[in-house]
Amino acid sequence: MKHAIMVMGYGQEANVLQKTIDVLDDSDINFYIHWDKRWPLPKLTSHYSKIELVSKRVAVKWGSFTQVEAERQLMMAVGSSYDYIHLISAMDIPLMTVDYFKQYFTDEVYIGFSNPEGFEDRLKGYYPNRVDFRKHKLTFKACRLFNRFLKINRLKDNTNFQVHKGPNWFSIKGKYVSELINYDLSIFKHSCFPDEEYVQSILGRFDIGDYSKDDNAQAVRYIDWHRGGPYVFTEEDIPELKQLVNTDYAFARKVKELSIVDKVMLATE
User: Taking CA atoms, which of 1, 159, 183, 192 is between 20 and 30 Å from 228?
Assistant: First the structure.
């Protein structure tokens, strides 16, 4: 089976991403990379995998519609010809060897779903499209109060639309790419944190309503929100990560130290 790994990244360097490519370098696994428009394109190499840098880049602002735009640009570059597509960040590392990764995926989707109750407000109101809400918290709060005061509800005329929520990292069969690309994205524009509703809401038919399982685990991602936001794994966590290799986690997030990849994965092969 053919896999496309879509990467969202930014910064001056892509050293962790290069390590990820080194681990999963295979003729059946190709990489498509969206690098934030504000940063120079990274130089990446492989022996077997194809590496494609998305030409139409977006200046991604956390919590805004720009994140959905970047995801869509990646999917447009990938197309529908792959058996599976996977969305990761440039600070994710694999927790599967190549052979295990290629045989592991059999389900239709690996999407994390969490309880959407109370999150409809994210799509009901109007928010700036290109504001980083992490850096402009007062702007976010002002917009939220404005929407609530005027009782704005953009969902009221979308009776067939149901909000579903979860993490923005996912793995799905490639046949669903065209559905995500061609969907009318107007409901996600001018919303806040739409990247956590985008894929989940369009493919909401796969939400079985059981929110007892960690939503990141549903997406076969190992992400720790208890120790951080999310937690950044260090060398002290290498034994923990090594125990997860070739289990039910395809990727771990976040990692900044290159030595972790070598000691967890490259030593495994």
Answer: 192
